[in-house]
């Protein structure tokens, strides 16, 4: 599988890169598109993405790879991007065990958000990667732990990578492009290689070795369409965010209802306090007046 330098793709797919902050998501994406590695980078704010085209068994497959923020305060924005995602790269830092432990949050988030996304579907290929293996003297999460987690969570594949040296970075996305195409549009590969067949025993072995991640809702069925992307980066971000916001009106309405309810509660409390204060003032004034009258009486 080689990278394609053609500007025309047979299909385009949306890929999310997820994981805790500072695991190297942005560095991995920069490495993917040939940008210079920087050891010190600011955390991603919101979302950003790049495009990369691969040759998958003769088909030109373009991945729109979305870089997401791992910080908790940006997770509502990150969750918006799950809609329409057709592949996921889940990243942890092999030198930081807490980023490995917190993968449970991301797996639950993937399962919940994608299973409730009406335009998407199962299965969604997930590639689990342990990043920063160039820091050999600081590794605290073993390869065996990564493989075990990938097997338990039914990730399609597991890799260890280095955004600094580039080790396995291209391979991760090449393999993900293959898995997405195989699920969403297998006829693309067959049209280039119509006589290509895979022996049944190999197919069974692959399924046993790396079973697909499936969302909980078994009623949802796979339906993937090539994404259409515009030429301007800013327009793409705005349009994707607008589409996602359009599909979350129910959540926005619920939040507005809660805010209005809280405001009404505050207003009622303020009114009650004012009434109590007025009553107290009136009582005090009346009592004072009565005392003055009593004192003035012979």
From TrEMBL:
CDD domains named in the record: Rab
Domain of life, source organism: Eukaryota
Keywords of this entry: GTP-binding, Lipoprotein, Membrane, Nucleotide-binding, Transmembrane, Transmembrane helix
Pfam families: Ras
SUPFAM superfamilies in the cross-refs: P-loop containing nucleoside triphosphate hydrolases
Keyword Glycosyltransferase: no
Gene Ontology molecular-function annotations: GTP binding; GTPase activity
UniProt cross-references to InterPro entries, sorted A to Z: P-loop_NTPase, Rab, Small_GTP-bd, Small_GTPase
Membrane-spanning intervals of the chain: 262-295
Cited NCBIfam families: small_GTP
Protein name as annotated: SOCS box domain-containing protein
Lineage: Eukaryota, Metazoa, Spiralia, Lophotrochozoa, Mollusca
